[in-house]
Write a structure and sequence with these properties.
The complex is a heterodimer of chains A (131) and B (290). In chain A, 46% of the residues lie in helices and 20% in strands. Chain A is of the alpha/beta class and 131 residues long. In chain A, helix 1 crosses helix 5 and helix 2 runs parallel beside helix 3. Helices cover 36% and strands 25% of the residues of chain B. With 290 residues, chain B is an alpha+beta fold. Chain B contains 7 helices and 12 strands. Chain B has helices at 26-40, 62-77, 89-98, 114-120, 132-150, 193-204, 213-236; strands at residues 4-9, 12-17, 49-53, 81-85, 104-107, 155-156, 160-161, 169-179, 184-191, 247-255, 264-270, 276-282. Classes of the chains: A alpha/beta (131), B alpha+beta (290). The interface between A and B is medium-sized, with 18 and 23 residues.
């Protein structure tokens, strides 16, 4: 599993969902968070942090700049090639999943989800990236 | 006193006059049709049309037709069609001349066979208001989302058609407008303040006593997830619902009014933190999906 000291970037245009994701992450054990309200702001946060952010949990559908837009920018920068990136969505369609896979997503989780489901997804992501 | 016989056949209520219907007993006939309509609009009745069978029993009566067309217009607001079988030519002409044929659809026995009726009588098409196959995924979505996201066991109460003459208020609502090949309309989730605060407190693990601006988007997020659940199920069944973005409506005792010619179905819920409801409004029949 991730080191719980890892700084987590939570990206979602809905404040309540950012709060929910952070609450769930806290239940898993994480304590350090950065928030952003869309993909563009998420990118600014990643850039500003250098390598301090160790995990991104981003909403898929957001106005202005989506989670996949952010993912593409992240993967397009060699510094963040291996940054764990989890997408969150309420309606994952097959073509969306393929699109996210091609863009280099580490994993995705479908809303609504419990703490156990998120924990399991994060374990899978960690295992995949460690292996 | 004329003898009427009312029986249900599938999703139709058939009102048959056993005696001759004329000026003397016309008012009674209107009341019988009104009674059938009252029965049809009861939540979960499954009735989408009332067939008035006048074959060989109807003596031309203008007042009766006027009264029936008034009931039929009201029925139409609830997505229920009135079909009249066995209307003689004189009465047919009158219906046409007076425009009453827009409320009362004259049909033949042949029209009433399922295929013909669907092809030739749009007003009698399968109504979304009582299409349980369409409504159920939203109901399941509400229960699932609240259970998983908020550890809340909500319970669905019987569905009802929204009565245009009744006020339905709430303090915060999330609304998603839907336009697709199969369905146009909207889905709303409407909460009183106390219920919404209770749900958000459960979801976010903090006690909230006031709906702040930051908290408002929770209504949209919940609806987003409910819609996501319903969309997946419905699209697997052949509907083609597209992605949609929720809007939040906030105010004390606000009233949601759908500007739509079609009916609105209300899905009422009760939960340990209070009651709330989901409204599904339909602008266009689902039968157009094909």
């Amino acid at each position: 599993m991730f080191d719980f000291k890892t700084k987590v970037l939570v990206v979602d245009d809905m404040m309540t969902m950012r709060k929910f994701v952070m609450k769930t992450c806290k239940e898993i054990g994480f304590t350090d968070f950065v928030e952003a309200a869309d993909g563009a702001l998420g990118w600014e946060a990643i850039n500003a942090s250098g390598s301090a952010i160790g995990l991104v949990i981003s909403d898929w559908n957001m106005p202005n700049s989506t989670g996949v837009d952010l993912l593409r920018r992240v993967r397009g920068d060699s510094r963040f090639k291996n940054l764990p990136f989890l997408l969150v969505t309420a309606e994952a369609e097959k073509h969306q999943i393929v699109e996210a896979m091609q863009a280099g997503v580490s994993g995705y989780v479908i809303k609504p989800f419990t703490t156990d489901v998120l924990k399991q997804k994060l374990e899978e992501v960690h295992k995949k990236l460690s292996g | 006193m004329a003898k009427f016989n009312t029986e249900q056949a599938g999703n139709s209520l058939v009102v048959r006059c056993e005696d001759h219907l004329n000026h003397a007993n016309g008012q009674e006939g209107i009341e019988i049709i009104q009674g059938a309509f009252d029965r049809a609009k009861i939540s979960g009745s499954g009735i989408i049309r009332i067939v008035l069978d006048l074959r060989e029993k109807f003596e031309f009566d203008h007042a009766f037709l006027r009264g029936v067309s008034r009931v039929a217009l009201e029925m139409r607001k609830h997505g229920i069609a009135l079909l009249a079988l066995g209307v003689p030519p004189t009465a047919r002409n009158l219906l046409k001349e007076t425009g009453m044929d827009s409320a009362i659809r004259v049909v033949t026995l042949e029209d009433l066979s399922e295929k013909k009726a669907d092809a030739s009588a749009p007003a009698a098409r399968k109504s979304p208001a009582i299409d349980v196959a369409f409504i159920n995924p939203f109901l399941e979505g509400v229960l699932h989302v609240l259970k998983v996201q908020c550890s809340l066991d909500a319970t669905g109460k019987p569905l009802a058609l929204k009565d245009p003459n009744q006020r339905y208020t709430s303090d915060i609502a999330g609304v998603i407008g839907i336009v697709s090949k199969s369905f146009s309309g909207s889905v709303s989730i409407c909460f009183p303040s106390a219920t919404f605060l209770g749900i958000m407190s459960r979801m976010l693990g903090e006690e909230y006593t006031e709906i702040t601006r930051d908290l408002e988007d929770g209504a949209g997020e919940l609806l987003n997830m409910i819609f996501g659940h319903a969309k997946k199920v419905l699209n697997e069944k052949g509907y083609t619902l597209d992605k949609a973005i929720p809007t939040i409506v906030r105010g004390d005792n606000i009233e949601m009014r759908q500007i739509s010619p079609g009916p609105t179905v209300i899905l009422p819920f009760t939960s340990p933190v209070g009651d709330f409801r989901v409204e599904v409004s339909v602008d266009r029949p689902f039968s157009e999906k094909n």
